[in-house]
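Dear colleague,

Following up on Tuesday's group meeting, I ran the structure prediction for the two-component complex that the binding team flagged. I've pasted the input sequences exactly as they went in, so you can double-check that nothing got truncated or mislabelled along the way. The structure tokens for the whole assembly follow below. Feel free to forward this to whoever is handling the docking comparison.

Inputs:
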Amino acid sequence: MPEKRTLPLWKTWSHITKLDPDKRISEADLKAVVESGTDAVMISGTQNITDENVAQLISSLTNYKIPKILEPATPEAVQYEAVDFVFVPLVLNAGDLEWVVGKHLEWIKNEKSKNHAAIKWEKVVPEAYIVLNPESAVARVTKSKTELTPEEVVAYAEYAEKYLRLPIVYLEYSGAYGDPNLVRRVSEALCGEASLFYGGGIDSKERAGEMKKYADVVVVGNVVYSGMEMFLATVL
Amino acid sequence: MPEKRTLPLWKTWSHITKLDPDKRISEADLKAVVESGTDAVMISGTQNITDENVAQLISSLTNYKIPKILEPATPEAVQYEAVDFVFVPLVLNAGDLEWVVGKHLEWIKNEKSKNHAAIKWEKVVPEAYIVLNPESAVARVTKSKTELTPEEVVAYAEYAEKYLRLPIVYLEYSGAYGDPNLVRRVSEALCGEASLFYGGGIDSKERAGEMKKYADVVVVGNVVYSGMEMFLATVL
């Protein structure tokens, strides 16, 4: 049975830390992340993601009580054990059907064909991505149409929240700092049913604060690997 | 604000009558439909649908209290007045993005650009179509991939109900009578959160009864125009 949508845990969050299974992190840094005040850690990456490096990162988090989210690069080989949520993206502005329904269909079919690995739907949460940085790996892989007017971005967000009634709308600038005015406009168009996530280029208290004015949740990733002090400053 | 999903009215329905704005129906036949015991009428068609013939059909239903659903051929020029619901399909097995997200985006953008016609989201309900008759107009228009294994049809249905958590999964054979075994398999795979709609080729008590064993709602259309006695027999 799908989980009831009343009071989803992420409605109480404002900061998520994305950890990349393809990047090394020391035990000390991992401890610093978990104890930073971030609300959850998300195991997520786009490139060189393997069952092994995902399992290793999840394993290194086992002893921490912080909510753990797995965000599979493609919804295949999902590991449900030891994570609280599996956030499965669909990319609204993808260039073809693969990233909206195709990959998901393969995932569902494949999991059903393996006796031992039924999908734990109660952990699965759909995320409606709008990919906005054309230089990012995710934009290239999904052939995302990033040349969008603000009206088009708002329309995608409304499609996700008001038509499909998805719980999460995710503005993804992955690797670049986005346009706060655009995040504000999307925020104003949403009616509060969906949580608005923002990700990309957050590497300071100022940027985190600016995006937090409009987004419900900021997702912070790369700076974990480039400067732990800067990362810690993003946790308000 | 999106309507809460508790107790949607269609959960109590078992029979919907589809009326085509492009086809003529006498006042007497319309009265017979409304008084037949069908739970709702759906104004819906694929070809030669105009603002005018939709408005005329809706107008002819004004004095009847029966629940009225508008199912726009494309989600443009939606008329919200005088209908209880606007069921807006997305076609899961469409051949391109247009029928999953493209048309919807145009609709949302266009409605926003007209001051007088904001979308009445509280009336809008998404329907997850799986189009299965390759000869049908809807299959041709949407370039639907109808060559599907039962496992693929089940996976589409699970994608809709368990991943997206859409309220309606619609197996559409439009113009042909479908495979009851396939409807049964989909019914068994769903967990009861989504309502399973079946449409296509229902022109007798036997066929209506057979599909009603598995589908929550049968949608009956063409037979209204070819034989009112046969139509009346489909209302169990």
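The longest strand of chain B covers residues 124-131.

Cheers,
M.
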